[in-house]
Write a structure and sequence with these properties.
The chain is α/β, with parallel strands linked by helices. Helices cover about 40% and strands about 20% of the residues. Helix 1 packs parallel to helix 2. The chain is globular, with a radius of gyration of 15 Å.
């Protein structure tokens, strides 16, 4: 049986590029690497450009809008659709672990994890909104700063 890792994160290159940088090391430990990102985000293009050997699945995602607050009423519906899409992907690829770099793009993949272990990484001094929510499903939280882990 293949060892499969799902990597997820996006919205900005700050979430995407660290994942791409880790791919050579991941290849040493996993038979297959799958990236789950937004259907419309920059991660699809960056993965295609810098890691074309990685399978990419786009799912529905939605960002919390701090300006146009009424747009946020769509969040539960879009998020649930993305979670459902991720569950279908997981049935196909049977991942061993999920690695989340964060960003709103990662939420459907993490929330759909079920019993699949999730490793999340937060490089900032405080957890971002997506990682605060993802923490509920996270098996291991990796941080760059000690105070981040004390949430």
């Amino acid at each position: 049986m293949d060892k499969v890792i799902v990597v997820t994160g996006g919205g900005t290159a700050g979430h995407i590029m660290p994942i791409i940088a880790l791919i050579p090391e991941m290849k040493k430990h996993f038979d297959k690497i799958v990236y789950i990102g937004s259907k419309n985000g920059m991660e699809k293009d960056l993965v295609k450009r810098y890691a074309p050997e990685i399978d990419f699945f786009g799912v529905e995602t939605i960002k919390f809008d701090r300006v146009k607050l009424l747009k946020n009423f769509k969040i539960p519906y879009v998020l649930l659709k993305g979670v459902k899409e991720c569950r279908e992907i997981y049935k196909q690829i049977k991942p061993s672990v999920i690695f989340s770099k964060g960003g709103y793009v990662s939420l459907p993949a993490v929330l759909a994890s079920g019993k699949i272990p999730v490793v999340s990484h937060e490089s900032d001094t405080t957890l971002g909104l997506a990682n605060k929510i993802a923490y509920l499903k996270t098996s291991v939280l990796c941080t760059s700063f000690n105070q981040t882990a004390s949430r």
